[in-house]
């Protein structure tokens, strides 16, 4: 995305943890900054009963400039070490 008064583009990476149920998740992009995972698109995803919980892990990485693929892979590897 363009960032006002900045000559470089801004980027956002959302990492879906492989330990999440339904991994990898489908994603929906619906306008400026409207993005989210939609697990229900792939499989039945029932509502939790009162008192039940599910932890869904995502990691958000933001940066400006060009992609450093080696660094991004390092961030990914560190993120998924803990399955």
Q: What does it look like?
A:
By secondary structure, the chain is of the alpha+beta class. It has one helix at 69-80; strands at 10-16, 27-29, 35-37, 58-64. The relative contact order is 0.26.
Strand-helix topology:
Layout: E1 10-16, E2 27-29, E3 35-37, E4 58-64, H1 69-80
Antiparallel strand pairs: 1-4, 2-3
Label the structural class: alpha+beta
Q: What's the total helix number?
A: 1
**Fraction in beta strands:** 15-25%
| C-alpha end-to-end distance | 31 Å
Low-confidence stretches: none
Largest β-sheet summary: 2 strands, antiparallel
Biggest sheet, spatial arrangement of strands: 1-4
Describe the structure using short key phrases.
83 residues; two-stranded antiparallel ribbon; 14% helix; alpha+beta
Task: Please provide a brief summary of the model.
The protein is of the alpha+beta class. It has one helix at 69-80; strands spanning 10-16, 27-29, 35-37, 58-64.
